[in-house]
Amino acid sequence: MLELYFANMLEEAIGEKGLSLLQIESLRDNIEKAHEQIIKRKWQELAFLDLAAYDTSSIKEIAAEVISTSDYFLLLGIGGSAMGPRVILEALKPLHNYISSPKIFIYDNIDPRTLNAILSIIDASKTSVNVVTKSGTTAETLASFMVLWNKMEKALGKDAAKRFIISTSPAKGMMRELVNEYGFKSLPIPDGIVGRYSVFSSAGLLISEIAGINTTELLSGARDIIQRCQVSELWENPAYVFSALLYLMSVKEGRNINVMMPYADGLKAAAEWFCQLWAESLGKLGFGLTPYPSLGTTDQHSQLQLWLEGPEDKVVIFIHIGDYAVDIKIPNIFEEKERCSCLAGNSLSDLIKAAEEATEVVLSEASKPNMTLYMPTIDAYHVGQLLQFLELSTVVIGFLFGVNPFNQPWIEKGKENIFAMLSKDEFCQKKELLKRLRLDNVCWRL
């Protein structure tokens, strides 16, 4: 089970820059209100908490078909529709394309160089494409879908539709219309599910099944975290403690930057996924916490100096791995050299754990708040726990700030402006305004 160690957030451990137990206790009523909203599902978007209990038989069936018919699998999406799947793939199937088939590509941007590189590798006649867009109106995903449909229709003719799986709204939207019109296979993203909370929907599970990841265990971990975090008592609920600590560090200490630092290459994508979840959910009404992705030990050598002698505005969240499942022994060579002698006989997991503990110590001795999420190992069960824990904690801290943790009004505005810039007719007036604003802001044109 995932565990939370938070002593280094408290004044008893790090002095006056830490929080007091009295400060944390002062949030009890606010936590109780957040708890009531969650337990009673007072927001439709809290449906993400029920995803781990959904029937996945149709996902497994489509995945089996893709595996048996395709050498390549391409997921088209952006934001949570791509970042969540990437977390699962990189954590649980690192270097998948070097050792397994079908080869999997996630195209989550509209950089033509990247798509061109992917198209130069895949064989359209042996490729399945999963288009992930709840609304069906995201310009980047829609454009890449149009490119792939055009290419594959030329290669396969009327059979091209059999190669597409559309993950979208179950009953509405443009993509649902195309499913009905062209006969694409489809998987629903249930109503109320917001993209950044969709990792346990078909958006994340189809690619997992195709990669050979145990989705039963993934969802079991998510369910167990939900069960663990159903208690209303603040001190017995790790998601509530985690949220309360970061909220108080923001409002009481002005520490509005949260560094997420996993000590595992496979969880680097998880830190990046956390950034979208945290920023898009909490950055509203003048509130918000700035997420900051890091990787141990790499970023001890690039960022630690800033954390220790830079602005007093950060909280570091370590993700500690108990068992890496594999290990490599450091050989007993060059023992005449003092540093080599110190390393010899240890393992790489000994070294990475020592590096993490050393960083924790140096931060704590310098009175820099930090806490640790402990993962026993990186497997499907515990990855499911980690992702569900962070989703739930995001909602709780959003409620503490008094913001809606599910909407994203300015992102929607940005989506609208993309179409406005490209439109040929109905948005012409707005298009001209946007161009004018862009030119007015040019200071130097070289």
What features would you describe in this structure?
There is one protein chain. The protein is 49% helix and 13% strand. With 446 residues, the protein is of the alpha/beta class. It folds into three domains: 3-38 and 219-401, Rossmann fold; 49-215, Glucose-6-phosphate isomerase like protein, domain 1 (Rossmann fold), CATH 3.40.50.10490; 409-435. It has a five-stranded mixed beta sheet, with helices on both faces. A five-stranded parallel beta sheet has the order 3-2-4-5-6, with helices on both faces. Helix 4 (57-69) crosses helix 10, helix 11 crosses helix 17 and helix 13 runs parallel beside helix 17 (380-401). The longest helix has 22 residues, at 380-401.
Topology:
Elements (H helix, E strand, L loop, with lengths): L2 E3 L5 H4 L6 H5 L2 H12 L17 H13 L2 E5 L3 H13 L3 H4 L3 E5 L4 H10 L5 E6 L6 H18 L7 E5 L5 H9 L2 E4 L13 H9 L4 H14 L9 H14 L5 E6 L5 H15 L7 E4 L10 H6 L4 E10 L14 H6 L4 H18 L4 E8 L2 H22 L7 H14 L5 H13 L6
Helix pairs in contact: 4-10, 5-10, 5-13, 11-17, 12-17, 13-17, 18-19
Shape by Cα distribution: globular
Q: Give the CATH architecture of the largest domain.
A: 3-Layer(aba) Sandwich
Major sheet size, sense and barrel closure: 5 strands, mixed
Per the CATH scheme, the topology name of the largest domain is Rossmann fold
Total of helices: 19
Total separate domains: 3
Order of helices and strands: EHHHHEHHEHEHEHEHHHEHEHEHHEHHH
- Share of residues in helices: 40-55%
Which structural class do you get from the secondary structure elements? alpha/beta
In round numbers, the mean pLDDT is 92
Cα-based radius of gyration, to the nearest Å: 24 Å
Proportion of residues in extended strands: 5-15%
pLDDT under 50 segments (min length 5)? none
Q: CATH H-level name of the largest domain... which superfamily? A: Glucose-6-phosphate isomerase like protein, domain 1
Distance between the termini: 56 Å
| Total E-strand runs | 10
> Can you tell me the CATH class of the largest domain?
Alpha Beta
Query: How is the largest sheet built, in terms of strand order?
Result: 1-10-9-7-8
